[in-house]
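Still learning folds. Look over my entry:

…
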Amino acid sequence: MIDPVVQALMDQAKKNSDFTASVDLAFKALQSQVSALQSEISAVTANGTMTDAEKASISARTSDLANSLNTLQNDVGENVPPAPVEQPAPVVEQPAPVEQPAPAEQPAPIDPNAPTT
């Protein structure tokens, strides 16, 4: 059974609309569970023997931890609004070049110093 404090952290992580805060709450919930599991394992290893009840308890804590991780993977960010999508800059099409008519032949310039006939 999940500890009420851990469950409260998981619930807050799910409800939070700020992604960073939601992830932080999720990590706190998981850290709390890992810490409890480590404490239980330390107590058993200090004793040197493990009873069936202790094995069952550690197994249950491990299952709870795995379930919490799966739940948080689905829940974290559930209430976070999607990030705004940047709109690409509008495409400006260049107009096709306008074909210029060939220049008309110009008569040769008149030389004012040329002899007249």
Summary: The longest helix spans residues 19-47.
